[in-house]
């Protein structure tokens, strides 16, 4: 049986006695997403990267549909990893759905964590009464139906079939995505768990320092949602980035790094 | 001289016809390619688009230039764009999609653009 660290393809780098920063990717990608921000933190932090089970190079055989039918399954993996590595005062940086997974990990083992950084958080994607999540119920139903029918072709594994030239694997390489490979069956359930989640009630109880890092023009986590998260968590810090889109650590790594550092030293 | 052209039409000099085929205008190939071409800035704003894409979306180039590509997509497509396509373009400069559907595509982007 794979160890906890093998299961989540955990990679540790940086300064051994530095403050640990655990980066957790969101739906759709893997730890490669942090590649432009980790070099900066490796200088004076202990950097921990991982792939959520079902994503990237995690152990797919460890995927248990029951365990991962809720974000708590992913949160308990993060707690296990931190314990296995003997970490304390952890800065947990979670992107997108993993901002909420981070909140749940803190809830499960508050003694492990010293700060949470929520990059593009959305505690509930579906609008609900006065609450704006950015998506209607019909939007999300359509998204999940499209995934079930594979209309969006979210599997990236089959690209080499196009090339069909075993003597020249580099041609297939050109058409295969090197990062963020996703098992389509797991991606379907992860999408369901992600986009139907509602973690609003988990926010007010958080008592450690929290940074809400909000992009401009984010279609997955609109600014109004980031401000909602900020208002729900007493004493949290809200930083609006100039960066647009949903993945500032890829599109604006310097701005992202500076904002996290300012929060940690402030 | 009469004959049959490369696609079987009578009354054309086949060599002249073939010559015209081989000298196709690259701009025409771009504009009327059997696929939509578009170039965007890293934030998705369209800066160049071919006629085929305009025909598919029923919009004129002037309406598309400056629009964000992701704003043309369905909700599912937009989520796919933000969680898969855009990150992959940032990391590897290209993104390949499964050929499991008939409309397989690839996308490329220059990080410097």
UniProtKB/TrEMBL annotation, chain A:
Keywords: Hydrolase
InterPro entries: AB_hydrolase_1, AB_hydrolase_fold
Gene Ontology molecular-function annotations: hydrolase activity
The keyword Ribosomal protein is assigned to this record: no
Organism domain of life: Bacteria
AB hydrolase-1 domain ranges (all copies): 21-258
Pfam families per UniProt: Abhydrolase_6
Family: Belongs to the AB hydrolase superfamily.
PANTHER family associated with the record: ESTERASE-RELATED
This protein's name: Alpha/beta hydrolase
UniProtKB/TrEMBL annotation, chain B:
Taxonomic superkingdom: Bacteria
Classification via CDD domains: PAS
Stated name of the protein: PAS domain-containing protein
Gene3D superfamilies documented for this protein: PAS domain (3.30.450.20)
InterPro entries named among the record's database cross-references: PAS, PAS-like_dom_sf
Organism field: Blastococcus brunescens
Domain PAS: residue ranges: 24-90
